[in-house]
Amino acid sequence: MTDDSQRNFRSVYYEKVGFRGVEEKKSLEILLKDDRLDTEKLCTFSQRFPLPSMYRALVWKVLLGILPPHHESHAKVMMYRKEQYSDVLHALKVVRFVSDATPQAEVYLRMYQLESGKLPRSPSFPLEPEDEVFLAIAKAMEEMVEDSVDCYWITRRFVNQLNTKYRDSLPQLPKAFEQYLSLEDGRLLTHLKMCSAAPKLPYDLWFKRCFAGCLPESSLQRVWDKVVSGSCKILVFVAVEILLTFKIKVMALNSAEKITKFLENIPQDSSDAIVSKAIDLWHKHCGTPVHSS
Length: 293
Fold this sequence. Notes:
Layout: H1 3-16, H2 22-32, H3 39-48, H4 53-63, H5 74-94, H6 104-115, H7 129-144, H8 148-163, H9 173-184, H10 186-194, H11 203-208, H12 217-228, H13 234-245, H14 247-252, H15 256-264, H16 271-286
Helix pairs in contact: 5-6, 6-7, 7-8, 7-12, 9-10, 9-13, 12-16, 13-16
């Protein structure tokens, strides 16, 4: 095998398992060296490639508006973010809503509730469905982002993006899911409808929670790269690919309850392949973004 063919073989292999060559990493580093970060190009990069772990938090913070595009402002802005984080946390401790023993994801939820004017009268009040969504996303984000201040701000802005930018799109995703599944495997969709499973699929887990609690974080972060950078439609293709991957198992189940229960607890060892195939499927149906000049 020649050097070129070996290199090509490695490139194809790395792409299949979710890794890209050094060229993409270098391209991102060039973008991150600009005095004023070009958010449009960062979005395009994130749509086309998985972000390297070492740069993911930075890119997400810029794209979610936690940090401004100008490099020289980053340190000062993060100082303000840390101060705000400390002030809100202190206030919650004073009113005894949280303590040092409170799980971190719950601390983030209470901070978010306080800042959005939705803190209940007592910590013992049952959580609203939207609180459960925040908590699931916060728990997953904890595994992706080490720094607690970064984790809170990214979770908060991520959830806000779902509630504002994607507010009208998210309810349409189940319909889009059926549309694309019918294109990929009409027989599978027919089976779901015959079992009356189609309306009962775990859409809240898939679309409202963006697969938090369904996929392991190592795979999930590659999906969230796309969500953060502007596409909630990627969620549809992850759902489609889950059905295609476990087609034999799903076709063998004959009740909506059994199908839903299985899909809520899919085997984790296939998740990397599912996400890679889902991204390929997304590009196939929606095209591949290119850098704007």
